[in-house]
Amino acid sequence: MADSRASDINGEEDEDEALRLAIALSLGQDPTAPRSSGSGANEIDLTLIDDDGHDHRKTNPTASAVPKRPSVVDPTQTPAPAPAPLYGGLSALGLDRKKMEEERLARLNKRKASSDLGAAEMRPAQRQKASSATAPQPQPARPAPPKPLPQKEEEDDGSETASSREPSVSAPKQPSLPFLKGVVKKTWAAGQPRLGGDDIKIEEVLQRDKLELAVLSSYQWDEEWLLSKIDLPRTKVVLVAFATSEAQKSEMRLNVPRQCAGSLRFCFPPMHGPAGAMHSKLQLLKYDGYLRVVVPTGNLVPYDWGETGVMENMVFVIDLPKKVGQQMGGGGDNQQLTQFGEDLCRFLGAQGLDVNLIGSLRKYDWTETSRYAFVHSIAGSHFLATENGVAAATARTTGYCGLGRAVSALGLGMVGSEEGTIEMDIVCASIGAVNDSLLQALYYACQGDSGMKEYEMRTATGKGKGKGKGKGNSNSASTPAGDNSAAEAVKRHTRVYFPSLETVTQSRGGRNGAGTICLQSKWYEASTFPRAVLRDCKSTRKGLLMHSKVVYVRRQECRQQGEDKAQAHHGFAYVGSANLSESAWGRLVKDRATGTPKVTCRNWECGVVVPAAVVGLSPSSSRDGASVSGGVQKKESDGESWNVFRGRVPVPMELPGAVLSSQGAKKPWFFTEAG
């Protein structure tokens, strides 16, 4: 049975496998079909990402057995939920090369005459059909991509400003950059009013008429939809994809249509075993004179970008101008990157992306990224104590260890301070077999801890327990006896936002629209699951469900203000691909062979740490009676403390979220109830 397969991986539960099985079952596909391990040599045929002889790549996104659907819904009608595409690999692209070539020749003149790549001009992507899949219906012509909305002006505090759109360096014909300082936005949703510059469409992200090269990664794909957003004659694409074997990789390459062969290349990250997923969603978009770095929470499918009107996500975008010396033909590949750039390049290198492409990123000015941190999870095991400096650096910078390092490096950590208590609010679309240990590790990481605090608590109290096998028990997922007080303290300051059955049922897409929102009842009902932290996740945009993954961290500290002390609220947010699971964030364990700690991650993930503003300076004696413990107000929906994210990171859920229960309408949504 599928359930047994999902639970029998490395001896523990695997929420990502369960989500894959749920998606397959919802499409009537065989859940026992082989999936990608991604083992073997990583190969990519890209040379450069720069303007000097770039050998750009073009991509046919992963073919998935998905019925065709219109890109925009009628806002007056309740949209039909879109079936989820297959996860992971491109299903060998599923393209009929002969038929596509015949149709391409028939349309060639029309394609040349039009600069707009509408659906009528798209070559149909013939997907592989599952035994129970129905034939796709004709897709109506897609509207021309809208022009990007003007961005609203905000304070010059690290957020986007009108004056910041011009690069600081003088360069001939330097383009105006809308996101020079970086910004976090909600995705647009059909049938919802635009948010005055606070939301963004996929067309506004990609800018197809200007896009020269795109490096794209995603967990799910809709290749026909994606190709309608990209101008194939202009844009070259590198697809960071998920394949089951070397044979599938070869098949995927061979099935690229001949006319796309010079424009499309693949990169297959190693997976290090059958479990886990290529879940990161990073986009590198090259234009004339600048590079755009995009970190969305959604996949490359229409419903994640709001086109079916049932789902919303969030996205971080920053534009990096090309350095003046490079535009004028000078050298400079040895230019220093910010820590953000270094960590991003380490992530790309581990995925197996072409070294020349990675090296060419140094030709752009990364200065404005210094206010942020790039956080990743690299699939595999990474030893902290090793003579290999590269491997040790990877271990310190990946998973929740990397999150703690990033928080500390940005000066946002509170480890060891008298006011170290924080409020941690997690928005996620998938929850695994969570326990107190994972919550503690994430909480301490958000305080700036390297990962060792929870590890040392666990290993110190685990020795000598059970049958005397200290090493094995020290890696146990359960909270050691004697540490319950620490675990309870963390849970008092932690909330996890996940939709209730009622919220899903009343959403615009209903139960069928929640196929990518995953929690299993057996995990929720386990004695080790921290049920008390769950809150109902209801969007502030009525009827939408969320696929966003955000960690909001707030803290309150006393600051001297003359003779008085004043209370200041500040914090940060993580925006990225990581859900609440050990597969996503990793686990620090003691290696049984060497006795040294190692970080083990199953998934490829990435995200960005975005500092919040400092607000609410007021004398502590004038507080309105709200109790304060450890420097943090105990009201989880305290409006003043949430104001730190205003203009920095949207807060998409209603506050305070209702506490979820084990029964009734307010019980959590379980994906087995879909349909």
UniProtKB/TrEMBL annotation:
Stored CDD domains: PLDc_Tdp1_1 (cd09122)
Single GO molecular function: double-stranded DNA binding
GO cellular component term, pick one: nucleus
Active site residues per record: 279 (nucleophile), 547 (proton donor/acceptor)
Biased composition annotated in UniProt, kind: Pro residues: 137-149
Site feature (Interaction with DNA) residues: 581
SUPFAM superfamilies the UniProt entry points to: Phospholipase D/nuclease
Positions contributing to substrate binding: 281, 549
Domain (PLD phosphodiesterase): residue spans on this chain: 542-584
Disordered as annotated region, ranges: 28-90, 103-176, 460-486, 619-641
Transmembrane segments: none
BP terms from Gene Ontology: DNA repair
Polar residues bias (residue ranges): 160-173, 473-482
Name this polypeptide is given: Tyrosyl-DNA phosphodiesterase-domain-containing protein
Organism whose genome encodes this protein: Bombardia bombarda
